[in-house]
Design a protein that fits this description.
Elements: E1 6-8, E2 13-15, H1 17-27, H2 38-50, E3 60-62
Parallel strand pairs: 1-3
Antiparallel strand pairs: 1-2
Helix pairs in contact: 1-2
């Protein structure tokens, strides 16, 4: 969580945590949730809360 948003070198774009969560759903071959749906907001809040106190290392660079 501490490196998002991140620059994705594979497609030369900055990507958000919302995009990353949707991409996880896609990789599991599950229907993608609606943007800013209750489930993705809850997951983002959970990831933010568990990363509290960690230093921010972003924007990060991903493959």
């Amino acid at each position: 969580m501490a490196t998002w948003p991140a620059y994705r070198a594979s497609n030369s774009q900055f990507k958000t945590m919302q995009w990353r969560l949707n991409d996880c759903y896609r990789q599991m071959r599950m229907p993608e949730p609606n943007f800013a749906s209750d489930s993705t907001v809850a997951l983002t809040l959970f990831l933010t809360a568990t990363g509290k106190g960690e230093p921010y290392h972003g924007p990060g660079t991903k493959r």
